Amino acid sequence: MSKPPAEYERADDADGAMTAPESRPPPVARGHRAHPGPSPGEAEDGLGDSEFGAVYHEHSRAIFYLALRLLGDPQKAEDATHDVFLKAFRKMDQFRREASWRTWLYRIAINHCRNLQQTWHERHVFTNADDALWETAPARTDSPLRVLETKELGQRIQKALDRLPPEYRLLLLLVADEQLSYEEVSALTDQSPDGVRGKLHRARKAFAVLFEKTA
Amino acid sequence: MKRQIQFNSQEQQQAAQQQQQQPAPLEFASAEEMLRHDALHTPVPPGIGRRLRESLASLPAARVSWWRRLFGRL
User: Fold this and answer.
1) What is the pLDDT of residue A128?
2) Which residues lie closer than 8 Å to A90 by C-beta, 6 or more apart?
3) What's phi and psi for A17, nearest 5 deg?
4) Is A176–B39 a contact, with Cβ atoms under 8 angstroms apart?
5) pLDDT per residue as tens digits for the range B10-34
6) Looking at CA atoms only, how far is residue B70 from chain A in angstroms?
7) Residues of chain A found within 8 Å of residue B20, distances taken between Cβ atoms
């Protein structure tokens, strides 16, 4: 296998690497913000320029994606995201600013999704995630083949994540967010940063094996 | 025969051109990179923002206790 470019190497990356895709966004130092820019519907939701509106616009994508991949259903993820931000709004005065907005929102989202999953498990409600429509936003330069690949990739990712132990699934989803430091991930998963790194190695391997089986 | 050879070579050239025009398959260096790519291509449904706005508008006004109204926030 070819070695990845130097800017993508991290001290804890012990896994093999393949060549980097051409459409990768520029790397962001862990724990720092990326600047994804305003989303297409930002002006339409009417949340305005308030502090809460800014929080929603900046963090909604991350929270929705976490809910989507934890719950495996777009509609449930939409409902959960709405509920998470509603809870956050109600508790905004209790937010002490010791943690970042994103960490705080993730904490609410993780607890909310756990409660939902526990409720569903108890009620033996099964959703058929295979029939869900995975909406993807094709880039302007994407060919139809790339759009299809992206959509199929999302389906395969969901299948692989569904088969992972919950702690590995959550860990991978949080670590994938470059705005979170390892310390923040460890706080959200109730373990030490070293514990995060050790478990992350096993989670990556498990995910890779499961992902290959989805082909 | 000569014409057929030329036609075959034209076919081969076209096939080679089509192969070059096809985008390279997606490849990722790690599971996290794959998830980041997936997240980048997963838009937030615009309905969430609208629903949230409606929900916020329907929330009752926060009740402030009399002593806070009198002395302000401590």
Assistant:
1) 44
2) B59
3) -135, 155
4) yes
5) 667 766 666 666 666 777 889 999 9
6) 19
7) none
B50 touching A, CB under 8 A? yes
Confidence grade of residue A29 (pLDDT, cut at 50, 70, 90):
low
Token couple for A19: 């060549």
Contact of A59 with A95, CB cutoff 8 Å: no
Residue of A3, A28, A57, A85 to mutate for B, most B C-beta atoms under 10 A: A85
Q: Is the pLDDT of residue A81 over 90?
A: yes
- In chain A, what residues touch B29 (CB-CB under 8 Å)? 4, 8, 13, 17-18, 20
**Contacts of the segment A103-107: beta carbons below 8 A, 24+ positions apart:** A103/A180, A103/A184, A103/A187, A103/A188, A105/A55, A105/A59, A105/A62, A105/A63, A106/A62, A106/A63, A106/A66, A106/A174, A106/A180, A106/A188, A107/A188
> Which whole number is the average pLDDT over A26-42?
53
Prediction pTM value? 0.70
Query: Among the residues of chain A, which ranges form H helices?
Result: 51-71, 74-90, 101-123, 144-163, 166-176, 182-188, 193-213
CA distance A168 to A199: 7
pLDDT of residue A3: 38
What does the block give as tokens for B10?
């034209």
Contact A157 B56 (CB under 8 A): no
* Average pLDDT taken over every residue of chain A: 77
Q: Chains A, B: CB contacts under 8 A, how many?
A: 142
In this predicted structure, what is the pLDDT of residue A24? Answer: 43
Q: What is the pLDDT of residues A120-157, one digit of tens each?
A: 665 555 444 443 433 444 444 556 556 667 788 999 99
Q: What sign does the CA torsion over A96, A178, A107, B53 have?
A: positive
Under a CB-based contact definition with an 8 Å cutoff, are residues B56 and A87 in contact?
Answer: no
